[in-house]
TrEMBL record:
The keyword Cell wall biogenesis/degradation does not apply. May be involved in the metabolism of insect hormones and in the breakdown of synthetic insecticides. Heme binds at residue 46. This is Cytochrome P450.
Length: 102
């Protein structure tokens, strides 16, 4: 299962910690090929991979340009259930309203 691969502590020390550096060129070169497969790999690779990555970047830029994203004071730790897809076990508690930056 891809979720288990991406959370393997031998490949990704402290897998639940936010660490963008683990995907840098130097760190990626130290890992075996196909140890990170968000869209599968090889001949059966997702045909929408490039579109999905472009869409994620576009949405992220729009969000960061228009909103200030801060952690919610009342938020619970998000717990996930690994099934065919990842599903939240609990609701994310957010009592803080969205606020425009501009």
């Amino acid at each position: 299962m891809i979720y288990l691969l991406h959370h393997d502590p031998e490949l990704y020390p402290e897998p639940t910690r936010f660490d963008p550096e683990r995907f840098g060129e130097e760190a990626s070169a130290k890992r075996p090929p196909f140890s990170y497969m968000p869209f599968s790999a090889g001949s059966r690779n997702c045909i929408g991979q490039r579109y999905a990555m472009l869409e994620v970047k576009t949405v992220l830029v729009k969000l960061l340009a228009n909103y200030q994203l801060l952690p919610c004071e009342a938020s619970n730790q998000l717990r996930l259930k690994a099934d065919m897809t990842l599903k939240p076990v609990n609701d994310v508690d957010s009592t803080d309203p969205w606020q425009d930056v501009a």
